[in-house]
Amino acid sequence: MNVFTIKDLENLSGIKAHTIRMWEQRYNFLKPKRTCTNIRCYCNDELRTLLNIALLNKYGFKISHIDKMKPEEIREKILSLGDIKAQQERVVNELVQEMAELNMEEFEKIMGRYVASKGIERTVTQIIFPFLEKIGILWQTGHIIPAQEHLVANIIRQKLIAAIETASSGTRINKTVLLFLPEGEYHEMGLLFVHYILKSKGICTIYLGANVPLKDVECILKIKKPDLVFIHLTGTAPNFHLDKFMQNIEKQLATETIISGYPVQHYKKKLPSCVQLKRSLAEVMEYLAVLA
Fold first, then answer.
1. Is 207 in contact with 199 (CB distance < 8 Å)?
2. Counting C-beta atoms within 10 Å of the first and last residue's C-beta, which end of the chain has fewer, N or C?
3. Is 31 helix (H, G, I), strand (E, B) or coil?
């Protein structure tokens, strides 16, 4: 069983901590335990409850009304939500819940059903990326045990690799993109997705993978001479410095380089001339759309 802080619940549900505290005082659906230092702590069941209640509240149900519902009725109301965004959020919440309970068989079934229904690209943009955004902060702060991270990452990785292997395009684009992650970065999901999009557009790719020293990338560049380098950062090592990394790219690679991911979202300093930042999934998708 996991133990979550109120800040964890805020990150996972989108409900501010002060609102969660107010709901606890007024209603009966959350009953956190207290540590010996009187700090609230929440279990998996309370996480599930809050995610469900937050979703219903977001799509028009009053909290006072939800508080009177039985768990089965809450579940029925969630399944009946007709808004497409609500349906996507429901699936993301289900993935969060199954991950919290280490129920990887059900996690994989949920994702598999969505891939079969919507395809891998929509699954990634509508389900996987929102899911990773929700739990990314918990990964960064160590509030998810390594077993959960590894199991979830492996399932998502398998889906993406399967899609990459079958991706094809009727046309070939005369461009080559090299993809890699720097030393200390092991989270490949974002980079694998970019790999899939590029391959499906008919663009040639050189995929080096995770934890690659920059000197190795430099050697490959000299031999293969790609048009572009793409890097997607998720959870960098503690000693990673983005400023220094970009300076080294300019010095050692001197090739047009795109960097996307969570660590670059709020970067405001002047960039090296060869580096562009893509601060959101939407920016990445827009860039890849015109690349071909």
1. no
2. N
3. coil
Q: What would the pLDDT profile of 69-127 be if each residue is shown by its tens digit? A: 998 999 999 999 999 999 999 999 999 999 888 899 999 999 999 999 999 989 988 99
Identify whether residues 110 and 145 lie together within a single domain. yes
- Tens-place pLDDT, residues 17-28: 999 999 998 998
203 with 80, same domain?
A: no
**Global model pTM greater than 0.90:** no
Which DSSP helix (H) or strand (E) runs through 182? strand 173-182
The CA-based angle 232-238-240, given to 5 degrees, is 55
- Residue 1 resides in a domain: no
What is the pLDDT of the chain when averaged over all its residues?
90
How many C-beta atoms surround the C-beta of residue 34 within 10 A? 9
Kindly state whether residue 29 falls inside one of the protein's structural domains. yes
Q: Please report the pLDDT score of residue 147 as a whole number.
A: 79
Q: Residue 97: which domain range?
A: 6-162
- Domain boundary residue, one of 162, 192, 213: 162
What is the greatest pairwise CA distance in the chain?
67
Relative to beta strand 228-233, strand 257-261 is: parallel
Q: Are residue 141 and residue 34 in the same domain, yes or no?
A: yes
Q: Quick one: which of 269, 4, 40, 69 has its CA closest to 277?
A: 269
DSSP 208-250: EEEEE-HHHHHHHHHHH--SEEEEEESS--TT--HHHHHHHII
